[in-house]
Amino acid sequence: MELLNLLLRIKRFFQIKPWSPPLATEILTLSIDYKNSWKEARKLSIPFALLDLPEKQEQLVFDFDLEEYSHFAILGSAGFGKSTALQTFVLNMARMNSPEQIHFYLFDFGTNGLLPLRDLPHVADIVTLQEEEKLLNLSNESKESFKSGRIYYQNLVLLV
Predict the structure, then answer these.
(1) What distance in Å separates the CA atoms of residue 125 and residue 151, rounded to the nearest whole number?
(2) pTM, to two decimals
(3) Which of 5, 10, 116, 148 has its CA 20 to 30 A from that of 127?
(4) 121 or 12, which is more confident?
(5) Tens digit of each residue's pLDDT (9 = 90 or more) over 39-89
């Protein structure tokens, strides 16, 4: 009987893990009520990622605040989720803000991972690498806008 109790204690000891469970393979963003949410002031802080903090044994939602961080870059090799990260950013910004509050100009020079976003009412335009004339026109237009100071937060340019 003592041996059985000892074995049970050993089994329980090895079942206790000092770390949090791994992050899920899919992380879903909470749904929102568009009718009410889009009536509110523009929101530039959006849920963007799930942070895994093993030293604290916590997993927290990371809210990306565009006013705080202003510019950002997502870097990585092919297949490491850059397009997925930008899709998450665009979709959460679009969910939290009306098309009148925020617009996107998307430049996709990769695997066309941003093309599924083209039907969002927030997306003013998507330019791919194959659209050279469109790219030059939008690039020249952007230069003129920057020179004249006509670029505002509601017009976001994302490049893949």
Answers:
(1) 15
(2) 0.71
(3) 148
(4) 121
(5) 888 888 988 888 888 778 788 889 999 888 877 788 888 888 888 888 999
